[in-house]
Amino acid sequence: MSEVKFTIDGKVVGGQAGQSILKAAEAAGIYIPHLCAYKKLIPHGSCRICSVRVNGRIQAACVQTISDGMVVENEIAEIREFRKAILDMLFVEGNHYCMFCEKSGLCELQALAYRFGIAAPQFPYLNPDRHIDLSHPDVYLDHNRCILCGRCVRVSQVLDNKNVFQFVGRGYRKRLQVNGEALSGTSLTLTDQVTASCPVGALVKKRVGYLVPVGQRPFDLKPIGIECPQETKA
Amino acid sequence: MKKALATVVEDICRRYGSDRSRMMDIVLAVQQRLGCVSTEAMEIIAREVNSHRVEVESVVTFYAFLSVKSQGKVIIRLCNDIVDWMKGYEAVADAMAKELGVTMGETTADGAITLTHTPCIGMSDQAPAALINGVVVPNLTPERGRQVIRDLRRHLDPPQLITMVGDGNNAHPLVRSMVRNNIRRRGPVHFDGFESGCALQKAIEQTPEGVIAIIRASRLRGRGGAGFATGQKWEFARNAPGDKRYVLCNADEGEPGTFKDRVLLTERPDQVFEGMTIAGYALGSDTGIVYLRGEYAYLRAFLEKVLEDRRQRGLLGKGILEKKGFDFDIRIQLGAGAYVCGEETALINSCEGMRGDPQNRPPFPAQKGYRGCPTIVNNVETFSAAARIMQRGAEWFAEMGSERTTGTKLLSICCDCRKPGVYEVPFGITARELLDMAEADNPGAMLIGGPCRQMIGPERFGGQICYDDLATGGAILIFNRARNKLEIAEHYLDFFIEESCGHCTPCRVGLVLLKKAVHKVVSGAGEPADLDYMRRLANVIIQTSRCGLGQAAPNPVLGALQNFHAYTDLVGERKSGLLSTFDLSKAVGDAELRVGRMSQYV
Fold first, then answer.
1. What is the β-pairing status of strands A71-73 and A3-8?
2. Which CATH architecture has domain B487-570?
3. Is some CB atom of chain A closer than 8 A to the CB atom of B53?
């Protein structure tokens, strides 16, 4: 692999050919906000939070590979507005009530909203009618909070060697589906890596939600992206 | 009964070698045979092809022509494209629904007939039209619609609805369709005579590199609309590392208002297949796939016959034209109702038996496409043009057209004009000339390239059809001055919302939000701030969406805002200091009811 030099907001960054902008930035200690990218999984490119301007065009940093002399703009007003808009879209698409969600302080969506200073979404709420699957003894799935990032789909396939989750439907009707009538009918177990992969409060372990009190959780203490070991580091 | 279902589904799976990558064919066959792909059927398929039920469900729920729940024996899919609306869709839908005693989307109580709608089926020159179990019924009127229902109730056999057949190969016994070609202008590239094998013979006298050089010299660019240089694409794929290479033909003509590929496939399939075979030779590929949109399934048997004839004549198969080592064959992959599959990476996914979600790029298909191998995806018309270029030479081709865009273009012209149909014209022709040719009726706007491209007003009718000015994949829609452009834009937004794959946030959610805003303005409740809000939101969607669908979907809205409306047309006057969106009488209505008297201020 050959060494590649490019810039992010004017700072020269080195990386390996074939590496994504996101990975290279991370290795150089530069934070690019992201949601669907996770560990060593193939990037999903779906949330678009990691959108950056690359040689003038908007690209997803998790997908776009680096090349010599590439000019990446990350912390600029235009990109900031795009990211805020996309975060707002994720909020209004589902039903997110941070104040009584047990994932508060651990939720990456919430943490990003704080980082971007979002007090209330700029778009009208869509108030979808979604259900909660409580059938499994150890894990529950609250579709109200699902942001369709596909982490669980990929983790279950790649890291757990199962196929518990998949997307069904398309467009705004697209939703997460489990391989069975309900979660309890799938091969999911508490020790599967997938149970720790959800960035929001959609796939949640039962009975451990309040072991760490609200206010003392990682994102309560340190905002996301500040000395915060990123999930993508594997 | 259960055993019977299992046997049927297993047999279908085995017909396709229980190959996971032939999932599209499997689920389409199950749908056709059983009227749906039930949960039980999905379990069996998953077991047979060594997959998971949820994986099968993921595919089935992606395509509009597949369903998990049982539908009527006969499914009437009435085309609800904007052109059909303008030609009387509502009255036809109403008449058919009343005659059936159901509302849109419902099935009759006896389970016999389902009435539903579908986006553009490629019949905009003979709208309103419907697909009834695959049988095209064009030029519907309320009376004709009622008659169709009465006939169906009697025999429940859609082919019996065919009382007369269209022109050309529409009358071929393997097509037998009521569709008309409406070829209004025949050009030298696609509609001159074509003798099978003539172009291929010339190709194999060259080296594969020589063939690519000729295509490059002709400066042929992709006819699907994006306009990528065809020779260059072929060269990339030829030079990319890989054991196998694939030639894919994009016959998923889904852009609303486009139907020229339908006519080409009806009248010139031989030339199209020959172009693919030439590409196969140039790339060193032995497999071609035609991805045929589900709406054109009525052409399938005919196309299979054309392929079989070519095999018989040594133009497909092993040792083509007795050239040792030149092996190439073509299979047809049927789609199942998904506009986004016209995007090349989505098309590849669909050919591999998966959801038609576009893929992240890079890698590009020329590097890693079908089954991870170097792949070219070209439009039907591009292959047809490539065959003609091999036959008559690059120079002959490059002399036609405009300075920077060579050759001719097939256009599908429709809506407010007297002569809708297919026109082969040289590039460089002006929009105004098209209006004259089609005998447009008081034109106020043109949609060049369909909703994914641009809407222009009269001040741009002098523009030229070419990649540098008015680029189009073939759709030309003419709207008269009386049409409300923002209403048209709203209609297309509904279309894009339905057809979005839902993968990325801005397209999946942003379009729904944009539609809400547009609707508010169209319904007369617009605020000054709404115009800016729409532009801002549209920009986020265009800039950050993953594929061409999201990047293009807001175009009709922006076009309508830029070209056609003075600010005052869009936003209502303020009433007595209140925002026009605020309906005072509605706001106090509930309270009035409770207290039992009317407010004196309303």
1. parallel
2. Up-down Bundle (1.20)
3. yes
Per CB-CB distance under 8 Å, the chain A contacts of B498 are: 171
How close is the nearest chain A Cα to the Cα of B228, in Å?
Answer: 18
> With 90 as the cut, is the pLDDT of residue B304 above it?
yes
Rounded to an integer, what distance in angstroms lies between the CA atom of residue A163 and that of residue B53? 9
The answer to whether the CB atoms of A51 and B544 lie below 8 A apart is yes
Say which CATH topology domain B408-480 has: Ubiquitin-like (UB roll) (3.10.20)
Give one DSSP letter per residue of B475-521, joined into a string: EEEEEETTS-HHHHHHHHHHHHHHH----SHIIIIIHHHHHHHHHHH
CA-wise closest residue to B408 among B433, B390, B384, B432: B384
% chain A with pLDDT above 90: 93
CA angle, B8 as apex, B5 and B13 as ends, to 5°? 120
Domain boundaries along the sequence of chain B: 2-60, 74-163, 184-398, 408-480, 487-570, 573-602
Q: Answer left, alpha or beta for residue B35, where phi above 0 means left and psi between -120 and 50 means alpha.
A: left
* Chain B nearest-CA residue for A175: B502
Domain extents in chain A: 3-75, 83-206+215-222
Instruction: Write the CB contacts of B601 (distance below 8 Å, at least 6 apart in sequence).
Output: B584, B588
pTM for this model (two decimals): 0.94
Q: Which residue of B has its CA nearest to A122?
A: B533
Interface test with A, best of B368, B543, B545 (most A CBs within 10 A): B543
What CA–CA distances, in Å, run from B221 to A143, A210, B50, B207, B230?
46, 61, 41, 22, 5
Write down the pLDDT at residue A230: 45
How many CB atoms sit inside 10 A of residue B255's CB?
A: 25
> How many other CB atoms sit within 10 Å of the CB of residue B126?
22
Give the per-residue pLDDT at A234.
Answer: 36
Helix (H, G, I), strand (E, B) or coil at B542: helix
Partner-chain residue, chosen from A58, A60, A93, that has the shortest CB–CB distance to B509: A93
Identify which of B383, B307, B295 has the alpha carbon closest to the alpha carbon of residue B341: B295
Q: Smallest Cβ distance to A171: which of B55, B500, B505?
A: B500
- CATH of span B74-163: 3.40.30.10
Q: Is the pLDDT of residue A228 over 50?
A: no
Which pLDDT score is estimated for B523?
Answer: 86
Fold of A83-206+215-222: Alpha-Beta Plaits (3.30.70)
| Contact check, Cβ <8 Å, B362/A126 | no
| CATH annotation of A3-75 | 3.10.20.740
- Give me the CATH code for the B2-60 domain, please: 1.10.10
Nearest CA-CA distance, residue B549 and chain A, Å: 11
Distance CA A160, CA A188 (A): 9
Of A12-21, B181-190, B512-521, B564-573, the one with minimum mean pLDDT is B564-573
> pLDDT tens across B467-505, in order?
999 999 999 999 999 998 889 999 999 999 999 999 999
What fold, for B184-398? Rossmann fold (3.40.50)
Rounded distance between C-alpha atoms, residue A64 and residue A70, angstroms: 11
Query: Which residue among B53, B502, B543 places its CB closest to the CB of A172?
Result: B502
* pLDDT tier for residue B565 given thresholds of 50, 70 and 90: low
Q: Which residue has the higher pLDDT, B447 or B581?
A: B447
Mean pLDDT of the B319-344 span: 96
Number of separate helices (H) and strands (E) present in chain A: 5, 10
pLDDT cut 90: percent of chain B above it? 87
Q: Is B156 in contact with B73 (CB distance < 8 Å)? A: yes
